[in-house]
Amino acid sequence: MDKPKFFLRDEQIRANLKAYIDTLPLDDRAPLVVSFAPMTRTLDQNSRFHAICGDVAAQAIYMNQELKPVQWKTLFISGHAIATGLGAKVVPGLENEFVNIRESSAQMGVKRMSSLIEYTQAWCGGNSVTLRDVGYRGDFFGRAA
């Protein structure tokens, strides 16, 4: 079954949601679960953050190493968690490596993601990383629009 999402912003969307609910099957033994939650990060925020990580990977060195954008993402999310008081949990991994069990940016709300982006931009400013002036909208990977 599809997992449609309704972004409850106006009366038309409310009406669409009500109509959709009326089409759902009822089942005592295997009921569907309907839940409501605040919106997580926006696609624009996601694209922007990934583009920033790409800019950092192209310009910065960490501990004498070039890192990939996904590695910078891990560092920024971990650093942001410490800077905002969330903390970190480092555990031995399955092969005795160290693993930071970190928060997921996909589960961040809009405000938390904004904070992460601000933290990352501040790091860039303090570390001579120039961020591209590109259109981040609509492209998951932050390529220039």
Instruction: Tell me the strand order in the biggest sheet.
Output: 1-2
Report the order of strands and helices: HHHEEH
The coarse silhouette is elongated
For the report, how would you describe the main beta sheet?
2 strands, antiparallel
| Helix/sheet category | mainly alpha
Strand content: under 5%
Structure described in brief:
This protein is mostly helical and 145 residues long.
Topology:
Layout: H1 11-23, H2 43-59, H3 69-83, E1 90-92, E2 98-100, H4 110-126
Antiparallel strand pairs: 1-2
Describe the protein in words.
The protein is mainly alpha-helical. It has a domain of 84 residues: NinB (NinB fold, Orthogonal Bundle), CATH 1.10.3790. 43% of the residues lie in helices and 4% in strands. The protein has four helices and two strands, in the order H-H-H-E-E-H. Strands 1-2 form a two-stranded antiparallel sheet. It is elongated. The protein starts with 10 loop residues before the first helix and ends in a 19-residue tail after the last helix. About 3% of the residues have low confidence.
